[in-house]
Amino acid sequence: MSSALDAVKKHTRRLSESLKRSPLKEPRSGAIDDHPPPISLVLDGNEIVYENGMWAAATADGMQLKEQLAAVTERNQQLQEENQLLRFKLEVLMDMLAVAKLDVLRLQEGTRL
After folding, report:
1. Reported pTM
2. Beta strands in 25-113 (DSSP E)
3. Residue 46 contacts residue 61 (beta carbons within 8 Å)
4. Using one digit for the tens of pLDDT, what is the confidence trace for 34-74?
């Protein structure tokens, strides 16, 4: 029985020739271009192209979208600032209400005595 176990331990796995060769390590043929064409994507009729690590509009409509995006981003920033100011004003009003409530309670205690 030990001889069967020894035979299994000594067995080496053999790979087929197709698995030994990686297509990435093979030399390139002259037909493959070093610079592949840019990736383009059409979303809702607007075409964008991925070049040099960035997405850019491929059409004039895309440029309009870029301008609209800039306007919406600016408006979003303004609304966030306004929201922050309104939160501050609300906090001040809550503090004023708390002080007024304490004044009323003190006056009520003074009239009871």
Report:
1. 0.45
2. 39-43, 46-51, 54-57
3. yes
4. 677 788 888 777 788 888 888 877 776 666 777 888 999 99
